[in-house]
Every structure is written in C-alpha cells, then in structure tokens.
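Dear colleague,

As promised, here are the two records you asked about, laid out in our usual form so they can be pasted straight into your sheet.

NAME FIELD: protein one
SEQUENCE, THEN STRUCTURE:
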Amino acid sequence: MSYFYFFENDKECKWMKKEIDDLYPLFLHEPVSMEDIKANKMKLINEFEGKIKFYMILQWVWGKTRGANLEWLAEIGVNYVKTVNDLPPNSGIYITGYDRDLVEYEELKKRGVPIIDHACPWVLRLKDQILNVPDTKQMVLMIDEDHMVYNCYQSIFPKDIIIISPEKFEEEIASKRNGKPLYFAIYAVFRKKDAERVVDFINKNYPHPDNDLDMKRLINTLCCWVHQGVFEELADVVKKHIIKTIWLICSSTGDRSTMSLINDIKELNLEMVVIRNQDEVPISVTEDSRIGVLLAPIPVSSKIKGIISLIKDRFANKG
C-alpha cells in the first residue's frame, strides 16, 4: 500500500505569515492615520495629516522568477504599485520583506513621502553587516545576483566584494580574492550547511588570523523559516519512513528558499516531482510509493490550498 507523509514544519516563514495575516490588512487596504500606525508601534518615516493610502513597491519585492506572486497579491487585495514613480500623490509606502532600494529610499525621504518601515529583521541584519565590513577585509557574500535584496543593496556593496552561491563558490573566491582577510556573510534563506561549507573551504585554503567567519554571526542572518525545522524534519522522515519521493508544491523553482529545499532533496538522493498547478498532480501512484508532500515557503493562496486538497482527496487514506 502506498504511503503519504505531509510535512509539519514546512509552509511560509512565521514572521511573514504574521505580516500577511495581521499587518497587511491594517496598512495595505484602506487609508490609515498616524494614530493607527503609532497604536501598532510601527516605525514611521515622515509625518502626515489625516488619512492616506500606503502602497507596497512591487519592484522591491518581486522579480521575474522569484519574490511576491502577482496572482496572490491580487487575491489578498493589498495596495501596490510597480515602481516608486507610480506612487499616487498624497500616499505613502509600506516597506516589507526584502527591504528597500536604498538610493530610491533616500530620495523618497527627502521628498517627505510617509514610509512605514517594517522590513524583514533578518534582511536588516545582513544590511548592517554589509555596512560595517572593515576596509581592511574583503567581503564574501552568498546571495543570488538576480535577487531583490541584491538589487536593493548593491549601492552599498564594497567595491571588492565577492558574490557567491552554494553551487559556485570555490572558483569565485579563488579567482577574485585580493589578499585581504575575508569577511563572510550570507543571505537569509540559505542553509546552515551552505555557510559551513564556505567556512570550511576558506579555513582550509585561505586561513588568516583576521578572517571573520563567525558561525554565530552567520546563523543570526538566517531567517526564522530556516530555523523552523523543515530541513531537520526532511532528514528525519527520510530515515524513519523511508520516503522515496518528494512532491514539492511551489509557485516557482526560482525562489532561493525553494532552491534550498531542492538542494536538500537532491543531496538526500530522493526522487522529486515539482507541482505548481493542479494539473501537475499525478493521477495515480504505485502500491509501493512512499511520498512526502512538501510545501515550499510560500504564502498559502487558494491555488496552493486547492493543490493540497486535491492530493488529499485523490489519495485519501493513503497516509
């Protein structure tokens, strides 16, 4: 008889879930006053009178293959504009998730545009590290070059920064290091093991008493989703339930958090089926199938709920 396991520690980041469930309805639907903002202890840049509408800047949170899902944004009904140039008169900006383009932000502040500042705290920790890299060290940063955070923060990157990925870090460091001690930092949704592999490589090949490879600091920038236990659960369920296949439910395989899951699945030598729509759900499975249904860290839209319901209905009493 086939076996199905539905993961418990998957789904979206708990911080982002609170943002979506509690704060977006308060600040990204109807006009709000300064009193509304202060009552919820939100950080406000530039005061204003009366009530105004606040908007998310799509360019800061969305890329062609990653970031906010446009279909989902329409479903939850938040106010957003494509760029800062599309912002209506007498309105404000709500900063969320991936923070802000720092150059555009400074211009908006000067113009007096009201801004609710509520970026992801783990992304902000990374920004602080970028801003505080000593000139005597060369920064090595693990981040995807087509990521929104890369685009938002590139104006503050040191000139000699080395950008790496888990798939390609040895050759990048080897070819671009300039002899300074190395300062390693990592974006929020990579895995702890991704950081450890880079630290081990640097310690082995480019040891220096002034290298800054502090794992405690590195782990401090890995977001709460990484620490929610999904990677540990994945390893554990493979061992205990002899899962052979993962059905990965996602909106895109281009999101780095989804790519982190995919890398883990591959390293565990599991077969994988990527499911982005209901028509990608298999019609049937063999009697000896042992399948783990894993949800990428994305907002649980009606589309995603429909996929999960279809799997449960189609394979009822199978696990």
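NAME FIELD: protein two
SEQUENCE, THEN STRUCTURE:
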Amino acid sequence: MNALELLKEQHDEVEQMFEKIENVTGPRKKALFEKLADALAVHATIEEKHFYPSVKAEQTEELLREAVEEHLSVKRLIADSMKCDPEDEQFDAKIAVLKEQVLEHAKEEEKELFPKVRKLLSRDELDDLGMVMEDMVKDLQGMGAPRMQVPSETGAPAPL
C-alpha cells in the first residue's frame, strides 16, 4: 500500500472509531478510547518520523508546520483525556473537541497536502514510503499501548 493510501485508510478508521465511541458508555467507552488513542498515536508517529520528512519541500513546508502544531494539540487532548473518567461529562467534551480537530486535520491533509505530495513523489517512492510506514505501524502496535508515549510528547511540536 502506498503512503497516501495508508494514511487515508487510517483517517477513515479513526473517523469510524469516533462514531463508535460516541454511542457507548461504561467500560466499553474506555476500551474504545484506548483503541482510538493508540491509533492516533501510531498515526502521528508515522507521519512525524517518516511521511513529513519525506515530503518536506518548499511547496509543502507551511502545511507541514501547521500539521505538527495540530498533532501537538491532539496529543495534549489525548493526554488530558487519558486522565479523565469516561463517565465524566468533561470526557465527552474532550472527545468532541478531539474529533473535530482530528477530522479537520485529516481533511486538510487529504485536500491540500496529498495533491502536492502526488506531484513531488513518484508512484514507486510512495510505495516504498508506504512499506516503511507499514513496518513502523507493526512495530508500534507490537509495543502494546502506543498511547502511553503521548503524554511525553506534549511539550513542543515534532521537528520537521
């Protein structure tokens, strides 16, 4: 799977997770949030470690700077939500804001960044990058709970 296909697939999966988490309560809500937080942590990591550095160019740099700032905001919301009881009213408010930020970020990437990346990288380059990113996804998921790294990543945006 090429890099853009992988990221789009992850965007779609996260959107579905948000829909599910809004419709459950109790222990199921906590479990779904943990799954969502893991997915977002993995997604941000592969973008910051592989995708963004590979597509950094004059025509993408501003979008990438905005993207890492958006990631920082999302990470802070995840870290705050991890401290909340899912039955607390504030938890639902945090998830609503998280959903809004994540879906807007995904939409911006797909509409603005991805078309520029298609012009920058060849199909083979996108395929190779996708393989590297897929390998990192497997490694991160193998760690067990990627979300546990998020609180340590809330001080500053990731470097480009």
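A couple of things worth noting about protein two: Residues 3-150 form a domain with the Four Helix Bundle (Hemerythrin (Met), subunit A) fold (CATH 1.20.120.520). The mean pLDDT is 96.

Best,
R.
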